[in-house]
Amino acid sequence: MLETIKERAGKRRALLYYFDNAEKLKSCSTQLDWAMQEFQVVSQVDLCLKDLERHEELLKGQEELRDELRGGQTELRRGLNEVRDAINEQVGLICPQPNH
Description:
The chain is mainly α. It has one helix spanning 2-94. It has 1 helix and no strands.
């Protein structure tokens, strides 16, 4: 009978140990789930930041192109004005206006 009690006590300790480890495992699993969710959030934020950086680079490039176009338009206007003035000068030489 004493042997049976010892066996039962041993089995009971083994079951308690098993259930204690099962609870610890469940807690670790929950912590792992939370960590994975946090990692996914951090990964999403990181992707968003990289997209934002690329967008900022594109905007900067767009502004630089716009500035170059404005400079080109100014130069083109200046060149057209010079051509117009040269044409007017040549027309004036070919067809002088009568003096009043």
